[in-house]
Specification:
Helix content is 34%, strand content 21%. It has 538 residues and is an alpha+beta fold. Strands 6, 7, 8, 9, 10 and 11 form a six-stranded mixed beta sheet that branches. Strands 1-2-5-4-14 form a five-stranded antiparallel beta sheet. Helix 7 packs across helix 8 (271-291) and helix 13 packs across helix 14 (491-508). The longest helix has 21 residues, at 271-291. It is globular. The structure holds protoporphyrin IX containing FE and iron/sulfur cluster. Iron/sulfur cluster binds at residues 398-400, 404, 406-407, 437-439, 441-444.
């Protein structure tokens, strides 16, 4: 066990219970205990305080709590190799009942793991240069990035080395393994905000500045974004960061969070609460004290938002090469499909695969001459489509009651079949992003959806029934979270209700007007009136 740190908040008696657990034994120490003890002695040997620390190893108990775990694997920046993909596929096949989920932060998630399997899984991941460590827990999580980094015609800088440096700096770094709460970083130089800067705790977005007569490409810095029950959009600090200073600035921001972040209530512990209280000015002053002077902000190079979608075949920065954006409905696949993706990446591309925060994937570096054959691959024609239908293509869903202990309702299969129903019922040629979540924690990021569906229960004559609250108008194009309508729709009516609501928009909207912009133009009360008329008893 590593030397214990003397944290300055240790003497505070008002800390929440989890803080005492973390002070007693650092979360990272559980990895050794899992490998040496629990994976040999089994589920019954796990001490209850260590069960909380399992998150630092990247594993959580799944629902029902019957001895099975889910594991999240970090895919830094959302880029992995075909070899790594095969290792992941084999883990899913051998231990995870053949299930692989791509998450909304570009990680990969397994279910059904037993504690006995964990030591072997950690080893297999390490041998492929992958890790699940600190992908859950109060620490720096999976680093989100541009899955097209290095090949993107819409990026101003290749961020792969920066993401790799950040990963190396933070992963298993005991200076930062005891944060007040989870901590999410995003880095992208894509001008269309591919890595959803405003909903991360710390984000870097592309910028330029003339310094001493020379134009420098670097980053602007955003802090304090996050979703969950009290969502906040990150605030931009008035600083310009050179690429070589990203790690230093990230370390500074994380130190501020570690030392000044709130540790009394778990629901009031994310960086967003500190940033909201301090404001960006004070936060910047404190940061500069730690990291030294930084240039004030330069020219923002962000122009709009691509939603994290890359469907179809597109030319890369490199002439003659293409990338292929593929749809994975609600992010779920099996081991055979992941292996097949690895084969396609090797045979047609350069063996790299991108994971997208829209729960989709992409294949990189396909030479022009191979594009036609690639399009005809059965897996591309039938399953991971280049041009999915609108609703299946733009549906996102969290895990829900299938495996999540916090869920109120079932989501994943429901969102999949709902999207299919809408595609069968309403013809819409422009994207309409629907995100479904099973509780207010917002893993499926419902706040940024055109239409967000949040699970709830309603009492009926037949007992408690699953239902959804409806939120409309979310976007990061002109960043705003969607807003709640006065309507709680039981699941039996959800499909027809949405089909009617979307049909009204289709009739009323201006050419190609996205749903969020339509909501802004006509106003929430207009949408509420539409809802009321749909719900009126016949
Ligand atoms: C299956 C068990 C899971 C549990 C118990 C869980 C738990 C949570 C909790 C408690 C929060 C709220 C965080 C907060 O208050 O700060 C949260 C947020 C979040 N989770 Fe999960 N989660 C699970 C699965 C997932 C999955 C499958 C994904 C990806 C698809 C995911 C991605 C996220 C994201 C993106 C957020 C919101 C980001 C934010 O708060 O800034 N989680 N999760
Ligand atoms: S949003 Fe809620 S129900 Fe869905 S995975 Fe997250 S914690 Fe579970």
């Amino acid at each position: 066990m590593a030397e214990r740190k003397q944290w300055k908040w240790a003497a505070d008696p008002s800390l929440n219970k989890m803080e005492f657990t973390k002070l007693e034994k650092d979360g990272l120490d559980v990895i050794e205990t899992i490998v040496n003890t629990y994976s040999k002695e089994g589920f019954a040997s796990i001490e209850s305080s260590d069960m909380d620390r399992f998150k630092w190893a990247g594993v959580y108990q799944q629902r029902p709590k019957d001895g099975h775990f889910m594991m999240r694997v970090r895919i830094p920046g959302g880029i992995l190799s075909s070899e790594q993909a095969r290792v992941l596929a084999n883990i899913a096949a051998d231990y995870g009942r053949d299930l692989v989920d791509v998450t909304t932060r570009q990680a990969v998630q397994f279910h059904w793991l037993t504690v006995e399997s964990l030591a072997d899984i950690f080893e297999r991941l390490a041998s492929a240069g992958l890790s699940s460590f600190e992908s859950c827990g109060d620490c720096p999580r999976q680093i989100m990035g541009n899955p097209l980094a290095g090949i993107d015609p819409h990026e101003v800088l290749d961020t792969r080395p920066i993401v790799a440096e950040l990963e190396k700096f933070f992963l298993l770094n005991r200076d930062f393994s005891n944060l007040p709460r989870k901590y999410k970083i995003s880095v992208s130089a894509n001008i269309h905000n591919a890595a959803h800067a405003q909903i991360n705790d710390l984000a870097f977005t592309p910028a330029k500045k003339v310094i001493a007569g020379e134009e420098v490409i670097g980053f602007h810095v955003w802090v304090g974004g996050g979703l969950s029950a009290k969502p906040f959009l990150a605030k931009q600090l008035d600083v310009f960061v050179r690429p070589e200073d990203v790690v230093k600035v990230a370390a500074g921001v994380t130190t501020l969070y570690r030392d000044f972040g709130y540790r009394q209530k778990r629901t009031h512990a994310r960086l967003k609460f500190l940033v909201a209280d301090w404001g960006p000015e004070k936060f910047k002053e404190q940061l500069l004290e730690l990291v030294g002077e930084l240039e004030p902000g330069g020219i923002d190079l962000t122009a709009g938002w691509n939603g994290g979608y890359f469907y179809g075949i597109h030319e890369q920065r490199q002439a003659g090469l293409n990338y292929a954006g593929l749809s994975v409905p609600v992010g779920r696949m099996n081991a055979r499909e992941l292996n097949e993706l690895a084969r396609l990446a090797d045979e047609y591309g350069d063996g790299t695969i991108g994971t997208c925060n829209t729960q989709n994937v992409l294949i990189r570096n396909i030479p022009e001459a191979k594009v036609a054959a690639f399009r005809n691959e059965p897996m591309i024609v039938n399953r991971f489509k280049l041009q999915p239908n609108t609703f299946v293509g733009y549906a996102v869903s969290c895990t829900g009651t299938e495996y999540c202990n916090l869920a109120i309702v079932e989501t994943k299969e429901r969102m999949r079949s709902l999207a299919q129903y809408l595609d069968d019922t309403v013809v819409l040629e422009t994207p309409l992003r629907i995100h479904m979540i099973g509780c207010p924690n917002s893993c499926g990021q419902r706040q940024i959806a055109d239409i967000g569906l949040q699970g709830a229960l309603v009492k009926t004559a037949d007992g408690m029934v699953e239902a959804f609250d409806i939120f409309v108008g979310g976007t990061l194009e002109e960043p705003q979270f969607n807003r709640k309508l006065n309507a709680r729709i039981t699941v039996d009516r959800l499909g027809p209700f949405l089909a009617q609501l979307i049909t009204l928009y289709k009739v009323d909207r201006q050419e190609d007007e996205p749903y969020w912009r339509y909501v802004e133009r006509v106003g929430l009360s207009h949408i509420q009136a539409q809802v009321d008329s749909i719900l009126q008893p016949a």
